[in-house]
Amino acid sequence: MLMEIFVSLEDLPLEKFFVVVTPSFNEKLLGLILKEYNSLSKASNCWGFSLTSLYTWKKKSQYPLFLLVFLTKTSPLEIKELEQNILALKSGFNFDSNGGGTSALISPSFPIYYSKELFRILAHVFGDGCLSVDKYGYMNLSYYNQEKVLLVSFKSDIQKVFGPTQLRSGINKSTPFVRVPTPIAIILLLKISTFSSLSSQVPSFVLNSPLHLKKEFLMAIFDDEAHVAFSPPHRKIELTLANCFFLEQIKGMLLDFDIRTSKIYSMITSKGFKKYAFYITTNKYLNLFSEKIGFTHPLKKKSLQNILLHPGRIHYAHGETQEIILNLLKEKDLTVAEIAPLVCRKEVTVRFAISKLNSKHLVRLKSKTFKKGNRIPWTING
Length: 382
What we know:
Elements: E1 5-7, E2 17-21, H1 23-37, H2 40-47, H3 51-60, E3 62-64, H4 65-74, H5 79-84, E4 86-91, E5 112-113, H6 116-127, E6 129-133, E7 139-144, H7 148-162, E8 168-172, E9 175-180, H8 182-191, H9 204-207, H10 211-225, E10 226-231, E11 234-241, H11 244-255, E12 265-268, E13 274-280, H12 283-292, H13 298-309, H14 320-331, H15 336-343, H16 347-359, E14 363-365, E15 378-380
Antiparallel strand pairs: 1-5, 2-3, 2-4, 6-7, 7-9, 8-9, 10-11, 11-13, 12-13, 14-15
């Protein structure tokens, strides 16, 4: 299966990036420029740059991205060759600063493809991340979490997707965070208009992605935002967000893994904010979540394992008892007394479920002959 492209070099806003190229490619660029314009002075006049800027770019092997892309369109140079010879790039290009840039360097390989690491990064920015733009246009992309395992994983994913880059760490009001270079924020915002906790949406490319990528997105969201309650009799996974639409999308994505949740409840917090939540409660769906999605967060993973090891009374979703009984009877005929321990229910509950199945003509008594002291088994109808 061909990998799909998330961002190519040509997708970037050309005026915002400054590119460091390999020495050999730098020499090739110089040769192309001299062949076309005979001198750097003529080239700088044609392009509207100062000759000093052009010499500085040549010396540092750093050029504005829009100039490089222009050369791919006006010379034998191809965009693919340019992508293969990029060592690093930075944002904040300022024409008046002789080619200066303001951000830290990142070193991605272009094009950037969809990957499990990318999907986890996106989910973490939606979850415990912050991507904001101030009134001067400066961007802040940070990820906050108390759990060291998640911070280390986030750093690793950034390095895998965007190449070796300098990541700053710190603590804000007792919460550790990782700050990510601005070029990465610009790249993410190319495909996702907002990461606001109130108005963001799960991107369509995530909703339509293969299951192995959806799983990574969901796992990262639940790592950040879920609460796992193992305090008998309470056994559940709770996901609470301020964005009801986003929560509905997550609920829908879980159905792709056959995981059903409660309905979505609304609540008002002690500070007067409106929140929305759903719960995964039944043993069946808690097991499915563990098998198909799971947690990276060590404490949440341990709590879910404790729930599955000590399920207490097994809870079934609406109608699930009937479904289980029907599947048991497909294998062999059973009496109510035999069914009860298999479904962990009292006989009176089983009789009620059987009566529902009987009214739908799905099951019937195997024999109408009744002998004192014996019970008649039920069988599949037809």
